[in-house]
Amino acid sequence: MILRREERRSPWRGWRPLLIGAAVYAVGLAGYAALRAESSTDFRDFWQTARHFRETGQITDELGVHNYLPFFVIFMMPWSFLPLQAAITLFTLASLGLFVATILLSETLLSGGLPPRPRAATWLAVVLAFPYVHSCGVLGAMGLLLLFLTVSTWFLVERRQEWAAGVPLGLAIIIKLLPGVLLIFFLLRQRWRVAATAVATAVVLGGGLPAASLGFERAAQAHREFYERAVVGHSAKTTITAEKPRKAKYSNNALPIVLRRLLSPTDGDPKEGRSPLLVNIADLPLDAIWWVFVAVSGAMLLAGGAATVRDGLRSPPGGAVELERERLQFGLWCAAMLLFSPLVWTHYLPLLYWPLAVLADRLERVRRARRRFCRIALAALVGWGCCAILLAWPAARAAGAQLLGVFLVWAACVWLSAAPQRTVGADPHS
To answer: By the 8 A CB rule, do 278 and 399 touch?
Structure first.
């Protein structure tokens, strides 16, 4: 009996340092978040908007929630029954708990089962993601929830539960539209059940819940307002061609505004009383910048799509090589979520945890062989770390240091997922 108890406990024994450290950090951060709950945090805006809806039955964008579907306000309503400090404390603890769960899900997949202790690759991925996890936790943002939902989607796919896999993806899409980019991946990989269930979940919950709460006409009007405010108002075309673009501050590292700053004299810190923060290397007409954006985005879309479908006629279905490639391909589309996003803040970057974990895993497993795979993965991870350091310099942020880090991870996943079969090698855990 004693031996059986020890066997049951042994899988977690090696994880205790990480779990204890995560618990201590979570409690400390939750306390800090509660102390600053009344200041500018994303969660405060979510909470106030949800409370306003509960008290008035109206969805408003005047309390800081601009770029979320009507479903999101209703989804957040249960938190509004708690005082703000209690709500943000519990939300922060839950978010960090979901991040730990994401680590465990990722390790279970990459190691062929939960290893007895965190590997060097695990620690590397956690360290590289941690600054952005911290940013997300401090702000009470949705990034860690979205990360858990997207990794859960892939976890269920690998477990051959594709009908179920679409449910977390559909929920992620109606919380924040960014994960909708992953539908391209599942369609290109001909995983029709995942895509179909995701769309059905998004339609039923995203349309049905607001219609049931507001009535059909008011729900339709709320969606039209969201489209004009978020989709049109923050579109790439509007950002690039507007005389005074919204969200032009250097902390926004989306591709449209980065190109606008680099190719025209656009102030990266537009506040009264401050000298303009200019990082432009050219002064192009705004229409020309738009076509540069179209060309760059189109090239990335074609490259990502080609890498995703390239092995379809060469790899045996269900083989180890195909699985390894699909993990990289899913990672490149996780990065593409941010490369194609009209807004990118630091608290969006936890969404890159999966590709970081995949690259770190491959680096650990092939480091002794000194293969090209190892060099590319290492270069991407080192570049990501250097870009994180550069975020301390406003001019570097205005020039797109944060976006460059995302691009390096994306490019590594594209290159390696499209590499010849012999350079990747079989998954030893399959």
So the answer is: no
How many Cβ atoms are within 10 Å of 227's Cβ, its own excluded?
12
Which of 285, 293, 281 is CA-nearest to residue 399? 281
Angle between helices 372-390 and 401-417 (to 10 degrees): 170
Q: How far apart are CA 203 and CA 205, in angstroms?
A: 6
DSSP letter assigned to residue 242: S
Sequence-separated (6 or more) residues with CB below 8 Å from residue 276: 265, 267, 268, 269, 270
Alpha helices of 215-345 — where are they, by DSSP H? 216-226, 236-241, 255-263, 286-309, 320-339
The CA distance from 377 to 320, in Å, is 19
Helix axes 353-366, 143-158, angle to 10 degrees: 50
Give the contacts of 267 (CB within 8 A, at least 6 positions apart). Answer: 248, 276, 277, 278
List per-residue pLDDT tens for the chain, 430 residues long: 444 554 455 567 788 888 899 999 999 999 999 998 888 789 999 999 999 999 998 888 888 888 899 999 999 999 999 999 999 999 999 999 999 999 999 999 999 888 888 999 999 999 999 999 999 999 999 999 999 999 999 999 999 999 999 999 999 999 999 999 999 999 999 999 999 999 999 999 999 999 999 899 999 999 999 999 888 888 999 999 998 888 889 999 999 999 999 999 999 988 766 788 999 999 999 999 999 999 999 999 999 999 998 754 444 445 667 788 999 999 999 999 999 999 999 999 999 999 999 999 988 877 555 566 788 899 999 999 999 999 999 999 999 999 999 999 999 999 998 765 544 444 444 3
Torsion of CA 40, 43, 44, 49, to 10 degrees: 130
Residue keyed to tokens 């080192």: 382
407, amino acid identity: F
Long-range contacts of 272-277 (CB under 8 A, 24+ apart): 277/250, 277/394, 277/395, 277/398
* Contact call for residues 201 and 75 (beta carbons, < 8 A): no
What is the CB-side half-sphere exposure of residue 138 using CA atoms within 13 A?
A: 11
CA distance 428 to 366: 11
Could you identify the residue written with the tokens 């339709």? 220
The residue assigned the tokens 């049905």 is 208
Q: Could you give the 3-state DSSP secondary structure of residue 114?
A: coil
Exposure string of 311-327, with b = 16+ CB inside 10 Å and e = fewer, is beeebeeeebbbbbbbb
Alpha carbon distance 124, 130 (integer Å): 10
